[in-house]
Specification:
Helix content is 35%, strand content 13%. The protein has 15 helices and 11 strands. An 11-stranded mixed beta sheet has the order 1-3-2-4-6-5-10-11-9-7-8, sandwiched between helices. Helix 8 packs across helix 11 (371-393). The protein starts with a helix and ends with a helix. Bound molecules: glutamine (GLN).
């Protein structure tokens, strides 16, 4: 209980699903007793980001708009996890509707990073011993009033894994929302290839970029989770058949014959020296162990944030027309007119970040602006995607880059109003993968002198998720 209290201070969960968890845990126990065929995740505690629908369980998206919304169905990924025996212990906190990179913009309050929070991860759920330097075990926690952000928008899921509350967690990644908090919290975070994992039941942010993402403490754990959730879903027409159902990573992955690209444009302004040093160190290590490492160019990377900043609001503006207070969600009654009810409902139900994006999106989509902004951004997106294609066809197997420009940032620094653009630049290294649909994974590498995790990212061609995870396991 004491432990639960201390983890609760970090606020990973919006809703704890204790009853559901107890019921499914007791089913697991029965199956175990009777020797029945157990699913690969039988009895494993898993957290689910609160933008995945869960039948009969509140699904809030961190927003007033959906704070009382109880879906009548579960997302395909949730159903697949449950079928494999996973025990869903709670719904995790997020920036409202997944818009943000700090998990500070939730109507339920922020999630906090376990690093330097004064809370010691106590290995309760771990069967592996930490080896002193292992960044996944926050040992050197220091009492600190000015806490560090967890990253976002899937910060609650990252914290639930980093604090040992769950072994695995589901997140969603539209521009980096799984990899960013995984980087800050020192856990593994995978954004699979677009279409490999069903979005049915994931509440839409940007349909053309949203991907359900996976958190775990180890790459093998994430691979086990991917094997359960991936594959064709008749309810999501963008999914593809997958042969990853029996995915098992090699015991000792090898780098022999692999060509690793280092995209020079990812050396971007504002990147901390310790991040660059870690990047160089790991690249050297890979070279010394059989990989061929070469510098490559993704020339349109510099446009990725600006391009994302147009495309994201456009899809948001379109998706968010559904929140009117008519079918579901929050409603503010008005006796004046239907329009007044819509306006009052949206005004009270959505935060400023969401409203700002709806406004921006509608502006970019105005008849007179559409070609200048929306269509132009689609063209730039194509160029960003083609950069990747060119690099892969030149013989490069994987790209190694940083994930975030720095380690986790203090809340006071992150929440600075003048600093909202700095939040967007933290996504510099992650957004291009969403625009190109390629898989990418965050791998925790080490702790810096302050005791905060430093992580790196690997990216692979579309569909090469297994090869990506093997190399990630080697680095881990
Ligand atoms: N930080 C980005 C945004 O605010 C990414 C969000 C995400 O991946 N869901 O849009």
């Amino acid at each position: 209980l004491q432990r639960q209290d201390s983890v609760a201070r970090l606020h990973p969960f919006i809703t704890c699903t204790s009853d559901v968890a107890r019921e499914s845990a007791s089913l697991s126990q029965k199956r175990y007793g009777s020797g029945e065929n157990r699913g690969p995740l039988d009895g494993i505690p898993v957290a689910v980001k609160d933008n995945f629908c869960t039948s009969g369980i509140q699904t809030t998206c961190g927003s007033v708009m959906l704070q009382n919304y109880v879906p009548t169905y579960s997302a395909t990924v949730v159903k697949r996890l449950q079928k494999a025996g996973a025990v869903i212990v709670g719904k995790t906190n997020l920036d409202e509707f997944g818009m943000g990179s700090g998990t500070i913009d939730s109507t339920f309050g922020p999630s906090k990073n376990i690093y330097r929070s004064g809370i010691k991860y106590d290995l309760l759920l771990s069967n592996r011993e930490p080896d002193g330097l292992d960044s996944r075990f926050p040992t050197a926690a220091v009492e600190d009033e000015d806490w560090y952000v967890a990253g976002g928008s899937s910060g609650g899921s990252a914290v639930s894994v980093a604090s040992g509350s769950t072994f695995l967690a589901l997140g969603s990644d539209t521009g980096g929302s799984v990899r960013n908090p995984a980087s800050y919290c020192g856990v593994v975070g995978l954004k699979p290839s677009y279409g490999l994992v069903s979005r049915c039941g994931l509440i839409s942010l940007v349909n053309s970029m949203d991907v359900p993402g996976l958190f775990g403490r180890y790459v093998d754990d994430v691979a086990a989770m991917l094997s359960v959730v991936s594959g064709l879903d008749p309810q999501d027409a963008t999914t593809v058949p997958s042969d990853l159902q029996s995915l098992q990573l090699p015991e000792n992955p090898s780098l022999e014959g692999l060509v690793i690209g280092i995209p020079k444009e990812y050396h971007c302004p504002g990147m901390k020296k310790e991040v660059i040093d870690t990047w160089t160190k790991v690249a050297d290590l890979m070279e010394n162990c059989g990989a061929q490492v070469r510098e490559v160019s993704l020339p349109h990377t510099k446009y990725s944030i600006i391009c994302y900043s147009v495309l994201n609001p456009c899809e948001v503006a379109s998706n968010f027309t559904r929140y009117t207070g008519v079918f579901y969600g929050h409603r503010v009654e008005s006796s004046h007119s239907m329009e007044a009810m819509y306006a009052l409902t949206r005004s009270a139900g959505l935060n400023d970040v969401v409203k700002g994006r709806i406004l921006a999106g509608n502006y970019f989509l105005l008849k007179e602006n559409k070609n200048r902004y929306f269509k132009q951004a689609l063209k730039v997106r194509r160029l960003i995607s083609q950069d990747f294609d060119k690099v892969w066809s030149s013989g490069v197997d994987l790209l190694l880059t940083p994930v975030t420009l720095s380690t986790a940032v203090r809340y006071s620094e992150f929440n600075n109003v003048d600093n909202r653009t700095q939040q967007a630049t933290q996504d510099f290294c992650t957004q291009a993968a969403n625009m190109a649909g390629v898989p990418a994974v965050n791998i925790p590498i080490s702790l810096n002198t302050e005791g905060l995790p430093i992580s790196l990212q690997l990216m692979a061609p579309w569909g090469q998720d297994a090869a990506l995870l093997s190399a990630a396991k080697w680095i881990e």
